[in-house]
Specification:
By secondary structure, this protein is an alpha+beta fold. It is 48% helix and 17% strand. Strands 1-2-3-4 form a four-stranded antiparallel β-sheet, covered by helices on one side.
Amino acid sequence: MQITKEVSKRWLFYLLSTFFLVYLLWSLLYIDQLSKQLTTEKTRVVSMARHLELWKEITGNNSGYLNQAVLLQENQDIQITLVENADIEDGQRFYAMYYSEAAKEQDFRQYFSELVLGNYFYILTDADGKIREFFWDKP
């Protein structure tokens, strides 16, 4: 009887130890997955902050007109491409904009929040270049 109790205690100890190790391993993997997601979200928030700053610049300095020459002169890491096959009205133009260089995160810390959008920013203008609509790509 004494041997059975010792064996039972030993098996219980091994079972609890195994359960604890499995739980520890699962926790580490889950934390790693969450940290990767957090890094992605921070990158998207920085992108959103850069677009907000750019939009303030467009509306303040250019009266709401998309002047690519001025934008590219002041922001050399911007890439603006005209989207040809967009479903828009005649005379309008549809642009996709993104940054080709990594941002300095500390410059945009004021915008960090839980609102996270994609890396691409889209601009719809009329024939004169006046911006009609703008939005982010949703992930």
